[in-house]
Amino acid sequence: MTIRVAATTNTIATNRARSDRRRWIALFVVCLGQLMIILDTTIVNVALPAIQSDLDFSQSSLTWVIDGYLITFGSLLLLAGRLGDLFGRKRIFLAGVAAFVAASVLCGLAASGGALVVARFLQGAAASLASAVIIAIIAVEFREPAERAKAMSLYTFVIAGGASLGLLLGGVLTEAISWHWIFFINVPIGAVAFFLGRRLIAENEGIADRGRIDWLGSVLITASSIVAIYALIKIPEWGWTGDRTLGLLGVAALLLAGFIALESRIANPIMPLRVLGLRSLITANLVRGFLVTGAYSTFFLGSLYFEHVRGMSPIEIGLAFLAMSVALATMSAGLAARLVARFGPKPTLIAGISGPVLGLLLFSQIGQSTPYFPLILVSLALLGIGFGAANPPLMMMALEDVPARDSGLASGTIQVSIQLSAAIGLAALGTIATDRTNALASQGQSPVDALSGGYHLAFLIAAGAAAVGIAIAIVGMRTPRPAEVEGEIEEGAPVGIEAEAAELRQAA
After folding, report:
1. How far apart are CA 299 and CA 305, in angstroms?
2. What is the model's pTM?
3. Interatomic CA distance for residues 465 and 5, integer angstroms
4. Of the four listed, 40, 173, 442, 444, which is most buried by Cβ atoms within 10 Å?
C-alpha cells in the first residue's frame, strides 16, 4: 500500500509538472494571439501613404482604414467577453484568431479601397472575439497571486512592446516588399496560435444552456458602443460640441439606458448588473482609463512628434521606442511579479504609475535638437518601467472579486476601458495639441516650433491624467486580501491540497 501511494504521489507530481508546463505554453499562445492583434493597431499607420497611393484613397476616406477596425473592435468587446462565458472562452478565442487570419488575408488581397475597408471592419470584429477573453483565460489558468502577476507582466509586455514592434515592422515590410505584407504577416502568427491553442488552452464550461440567450440586450449594447466609439473618433473632425458629436452621443446614451433597463428586468441578462457593483473591477477600470489616457495614448502622439517635429522615418521611430520596449521586457521578466510579492499590489501600482508621470513630464521638455541620450531615452524608459510595473497589479486587483462565471465579461470590460480611454485620450489630446499649435502659429512662430509647442502641452496634460490615476488608486482601491487562490473556483474543480487528497483517495 505504501509503494502504491508513493507511486501515486509521483504520478500526481508528474501530472502537475506537465499541467504547469501546459499552462505556461498556453499563456504564450494567447499572448501570441494578442501580439497579432496589437500589431495591427500601429503597423497599418506606417503603411497609410503607400495604401493611399496604391488604392487611390481620398484623404477623408483613408481614415476608414483605421476607423473601421477601431469601431468594430471596441464595440464588440463586451459582447465577445460574455460569449466566452456562455459558450466557452477557448472556443471564442480560437474563432476570433481564425476569423482574424481570414480577414487579414482579405485585407492583403484587397484590390480597391472599398474592399480594404470592409475587410478592416471584419478584422476588427475578429480581434474583439480573440482579445476579449484573453484576460479571463489568464485569470482562470493562473489563480495563485505570484503566478498571476508573472502572467500579467508578460501580457503587458506584449501589448506595449507589440505596438512599438508594429511601427518598426510596418516600416520594414512596406519599404522592403509592399504594404500587402503588413496583413499577410498575421497568417503564420495566427496559424501557430490557433493550432497550439486547440491543444493547450483549457476550456471553461459554458453556461449558455442554463437559460435563453439575451440577444436583444446584445444588440442594444453593441449598437450603443458602435455609435459612441464612432462619435469619439470623429471628435477631432467634428469638435466636442458639434451637432453630430452631441447627437450621436445622445443616441448612444439612449441605447445604453434601454440596455440597462432591459438587463434589470430579465432573468438571464447578457451583462448581469451585479458586475457593476464589483468595486475592485470598476475602480481598477477607472484607474486604467486615466493611465491609458496619459501613457498609452502618448505612444501615438509621440510617434507623430518624432515624425513631424524631429523628421524621423518609420523605422527610426520604431527604434526610438525600443527603450520603452526594453524597459517593459525587464519588468515582464519577473521584476514586476517580485515587486508585487515584496511590497503588495497597491504600493506597486502607485509607484508604477509614477513612472509615466515623470516620463511624460520629461518628454514635454524635449526640444527639436535634444539628443536621444539621455533625456529621450530616460523618459521613454520611465514610461516602459512604470507601465510594466503598474499593469500586472492593476489586472490582479480588477479581478479580485470577479466570480469565475463572469470572468469573460470582466475581461471584456477591461478591454473596453482601454479602447474607450485611448479613443477619448487621443481625441482630447490631439485637439488640445492642434489648438495650441494654431495659437502659436498665429503668434508668428515657425510651423515646427508651433507643432512642438502643441505636442508639449499635450504631454503635460497626459502626465496630469496619469497623476489623477494615482489619486484614485490611493483613495479608491483596497489592498487585495491575501489568499492562495483568488476568485471563485470553477464548478467541480478541486484545487491545491484538496485536489491532491482527492486524487490519492481515488487512486487508493
Report:
1. 10
2. 0.75
3. 59
4. 40
